[in-house]
Specification:
heterodimer, A: 127 residues, alpha+beta, Nonspecific Lipid-transfer Protein, Chain A, five-stranded mixed β-sheet, 6 helices, B: 274 residues, eight-stranded mixed β-sheet
Chain lengths: 127, 274
C-alpha cells in the first residue's frame, strides 16, 4: 500500500528528483512484489502516479520482493544504491536513462524512505 | 634560474589553492590563468620558458579546478570573484607587479585584473577573450549545471576541444588539449561558462592603465573577432596580435606563443628581475 497523492507531492518537492528530471521525459515503474507503481515525470514535474501501469510500458523499472525493498529503504541508513548495485533490487528497461538520472533515483529513495517511516507506504505484508 | 615546475599550496579567501611554479621567487612574477574547467597543467610549456628567462611563473588551479578546493565547496560564478582570489593570492605570496597572462576565461580574468589593478600590473596578455563574451546560450549552460543535462560529458569535451583547435595547431599539442578536455567536473566547467557569459567590462575599459596585448587565434569560433576588436578599441594602450590557423588555445597550440609574449614584454622593457 502506498499513498499515491503523497508520493506525487513529495517527489515534486524533492530537490534531487526535480532537478535531475528537469531533462527527462519518461516513466519509472516500481515493482514492489505484487504491487506496481507507475510514475510519469516530465521536465522536473510529476505528471501522474498510478497503480495501473499503462500498456505502453516504462522507461525503466526497479523491481524486487518486498523484503528487499524493506532492507534497502527501512534501515537507519539508506541502502537503496547498495541494493541496486548488489542485485537485491533489479533494473529493467533503459539502463542508460536510469544511470543518467541517478540523482532522481536517489531522490525517489529518499521519498520512499520517508513514506515507509511515517506509514504512508507499507510493503507487501504476507508476500 | 630554475626551469623545474614545482607545486605548492596556499590558503586564500577560504579556498585551498594549488599552483604550479617555476623560477626563483625573486624574479618578476608572471601569473598564468587557465581556461574554463581546466587547470595549471595547461601552462607546462610556458612556465619553464619564462623561468629560464628569470621570471617567477605561477599557474594556479582556480578554485574548484584541478587540486584547488573551493571555499564551502561552492563553485565561483563570477569572473571578478576569480580575479580577486588571484590578486589576494599574489598578496599572500608577497608578489607584486606581476605580468598577467590568461586564456579564455583566464583572459577575461586577466582583463578584469587590468581594469581593477592595472596601475600595479606592468603588462597583461589576454588570449581568446574580450571585455564582453556572451558567446554561449544561457539554456545550454543551465543544462550543463545539471548532471542529467550533459550525458557523455567526456566525449563532448574531447570533441569540443578538437573542434576548437586551429588547422595549424601542433598535432602533439592538440592530442594533449583533447586529453585534458576530458578531465574535470561538468559543474565546474559550466559554472565557468556562466561567469564567462555574464562578464561585461565594456563600461570600464578606459580605466585600463597598463599595456595590454590581446592574442586571438583566427580559427576560434568560441570568441568572434568583433568582440575582440571592440575590446582593443576601448583600451587606451592595447594592441591585437592575430595568429593565423590557431584556435582557442594559442598557449598550447603553437610554439610561437612564448616568443610572442617575450617580444611584447621586451618591447615594454620588462625582463628578468623585478
Amino acid at each position: 500500500m502506498l499513498d499515491l497523492t503523497k508520493l506525487s507531492e513529495l517527489l515534486g518537492r524533492n530537490e534531487n528528483f526535480v532537478s535531475s528530471t528537469k531533462y527527462f521525459d519518461g516513466s519509472i515503474q516500481l515493482n514492489l512484489g505484487k504491487e506496481k507503481i507507475w510514475i510519469k515525470a516530465f521536465m522536473g514535474r510529476v505528471i501522474l502516479v498510478t497503480q495501473e501501469p499503462p500498456p505502453f510500458g516504462f522507461t525503466f523499472a526497479i523491481e524486487g520482493p518486498p523484503a528487499e525493498w524493506r532492507w534497502a529503504l527501512g534501515g537507519a541508513k539508506n541502502r537503496f544504491r547498495e541494493a541496486l548495485m548488489t542485485g537485491r533490487l533489479a533494473v529493467q528497461g533503459n539502463r542508460i536513462e536510469f544511470s543518467r538520472i541517478g540523482k532522481a533515483v536517489h531522490g525517489l529513495s529518499e521519498v520512499l524512505r520517508r513514506m515507509l517511516q511515517d506509514g504512508s507506504m507499507r510493503l507487501g505484508e504476507g508476500e | 634560474m630554475n626551469p623545474e615546475i614545482t607545486g605548492r599550496y596556499a590558503e586564500v579567501q577560504g579556498h585551498r589553492l594549488y599552483l604550479d611554479t617555476g623560477g626563483e621567487s625573486t624574479g618578476r612574477p608572471m601569473l598564468l590563468i587557465h581556461t574554463a574547467g581546466q587547470q595549471s597543467l595547461q601552462w607546462r610549456f610556458v612556465i619553464p620558458y619564462f623561468a629560464e628567462r628569470g621570471f617567477y611563473a605561477l599557474a594556479p588551479d582556480l578554485p574548484g579546478h584541478g587540486k584547488s578546493l573551493p571555499d564551502q565547496f561552492k563553485p565561483l560564478e563570477s569572473i571578478h570573484a576569480f580575479a580577486e582570489v588571484l590578486w589576494d593570492l599574489l598578496r599572500a605570496l608577497h608578489l607584486d607587479h606581476p605580468v598577467v597572462v590568461g586564456c579564455s576565461i583566464g583572459g577575461d580574468i586577466a582583463l578584469d585584473l587590468a581594469v581593477h589593478h592595472g596601475s600595479e600590473i606592468p603588462a597583461v596578455i589576454a588570449c581568446q577573450s574580450a571585455a564582453f563574451t556572451p558567446t554561449f546560450p544561457p539554456q545550454i549552460i543551465e543544462m550543463g549545471l545539471e548532471d542529467s543535462g550533459v550525458p557523455s560529458y567526456s566525449d563532448q569535451g574531447y570533441l569540443s576541444g578538437l573542434s576548437a583547435c586551429g588547422s595549424k595547431a601542433d598535432k602533439e599539442r592538440v592530442a594533449e588539449i583533447v586529453w585534458t578536455r576530458r578531465l574535470g567536473d561538468p559543474k565546474i566547467y559550466y559554472s565557468d561558462l556562466k561567469a564567462w557569459i555574464r562578464h561585461d567590462l565594456r563600461p570600464h575599459l578606459s580605466k585600463v592603465s597598463c599595456p595590454l596585448l590581446l592574442v586571438w587565434g583566427n580559427e576560434d569560433y568560441f570568441v568572434p573577432r568583433p568582440l575582440v576588436e571592440e575590446t582593443v578599441a576601448g583600451i587606451p594602450n592595447a594592441r591585437l596580435e592575430i595568429l593565423d590557423g590557431i584556435g582557442h588555445y594559442p598557449h598550447l597550440e603553437t610554439k610561437e606563443f612564448n616568443p610572442l609574449v617575450e617580444r611584447f614584454l621586451q618591447s615594454l622593457g620588462i625582463g628578468k628581475g623585478k
